[in-house]
Write a structure and sequence with these properties.
Rna Polymerase Sigma Factor, Chain: A; 72% helix; globular; 2 domains; mainly alpha; 8 helices; single chain; Arc Repressor Mutant, subunit A
Length: 179
């Protein structure tokens, strides 16, 4: 906890080493989370960069309250995605890009994996918004139950219930899936 607080102070003071560490540690997770939500590689890259820019811009007013830094970043990412969808309703029908899996060794295997990913994303899209938020933050973002609870403003117990019901629903929807 002390290390997290020291790290937060470095970010607040805009210490280049702290920001480099933040970017290296969290960019892949933020990008995966956003890519799953917007399903467009270029837009996901832009939005992920905007998350870190917004974090940097707001860092002088940042107040560490004992919550993990990841909660702060993913809250910014979540808001960026919400704003992205709010600004242009025509973006809602974007096709899933084949960028999710690139396997140059075995094109057939890559095509199967891409098909699997499309099926999984389709099934996740049928969950409630609260369930989707939990699944995306937990598995695409790699966050803990407590971090997800902090981002969504819910109790850890509520997040566990949402995760359990979402996974049960996905299990039912994908039970006939042959992979």
């Amino acid at each position: 906890m002390q290390d997290e607080e020291t790290f937060a102070q470095g970010l607040k003071k805009q210490d280049p080493e702290a920001w480099a560490r933040l970017y290296e540690e969290y960019f892949p997770r933020i990008y995966r989370y956003i890519a799953l939500r917007v399903q467009n590689q270029t837009e996901a890259e832009d939005l992920a960069e905007q998350v870190f820019l917004k974090a940097l811009e707001s860092s002088p007013s940042f107040k560490w309250r004992g919550a993990p830094i990841s909660s702060w970043l993913f809250r910014i990412a979540r808001n960026q995605v919400i704003d992205y969808w709010r600004t242009d309703k025509s973006k809602r029908t974007l096709p899933l890009n084949e960028f999710l899996v690139s396997d140059t060794i075995d094109p057939e295997r890559a095509a199967e994996r891409n098909s699997d990913i499309r099926e999984l994303i389709k099934a996740v899209g049928q969950l409630t918004q609260a369930q989707r938020d939990v699944i995306e933050l937990r598995f695409a973002g790699g966050l803990s139950i407590s971090e997800v609870a902090n981002i969504l403003g819910r109790s850890p117990g509520a997040v566990k219930v949402l995760q359990h019901s979402a996974l049960a629903t996905l299990r039912r929807k994908l039970s006939g899936w042959k992979r």
